[in-house]
Amino acid sequence: MSHVQKVIFTHINALIRRVTNLLKQANLKVAFCVINTIQQQLIVKQACKDPGGIQKLKCNKSNGVYVGQSGWAINVRYEEHIQYIRTNNSTSAYAKHILENKHEYRTKKTH
Questions:
Q1: Which residues are 23's β-sheet partners?
Q2: Three-state secondary structure along the chain?
Q3: d(CA 21, CA 51)
Q4: Which of 49, 65, 105, 100 is nearest to 81 (CA)?
Q5: Please, what is the Cα angle at 9 between 4 and 15, to 5 degrees?
Q6: Could you read off the pLDDT of 64-106 as tens digits, one per residue?
Q7: What is the b/e burial string over 89-105, where b = at least 16 CB atoms within 10 angstroms of the residue's CB?
Q8: Where are the domains of the chain?
């Protein structure tokens, strides 16, 4: 029976992102504690006011394009993509591309 080693972080920033990449290369499990914040609650309330739609995200480095449709407000869905990147979670195709290729990304959606 093998012993699984796990590292848990409670916050996320650029340094933590680099550290988690190193830990994953060393085959260590990385986990993040979810902290429910007031900001998260406000985003959910705003999502009810704004309609969903289709979004187009472009990678500035590779010129790759991600197109997605969501019932959530576009700004809320974009924030989800950024959260996936910050937590090294490749759930979305955009986050997966950024993480796997170590490309830079914008933290705010520009129109």
A1: none
A2: CCCCCEEEECCCCHHHHHHHHHHHHCCCEEEECCCCCHHHHHHHHHHHHCCCEEEEEECCCCCCEEEEEECCCHHHHHHHHHHHHHCCCCCCHHHHHHHHHCCCCCCCCCC
A3: 36
A4: 105
A5: 115
A6: 888 888 877 788 888 888 888 989 988 888 889 889 998 888 7
A7: eeebebbebbbeeeeeb
A8: 52-111
Give per-residue pLDDT as tens, 6-64. Answer: 666 666 777 878 888 888 888 887 777 665 666 666 665 554 556 677 888 888 888 88
> What span, in angstroms and rounded, lies between the C-alpha atoms of 102 and 96?
10
In this structure, what token pair is assigned to residue 65?
């394009």
- Cβ count within 10 A of residue 80: 17
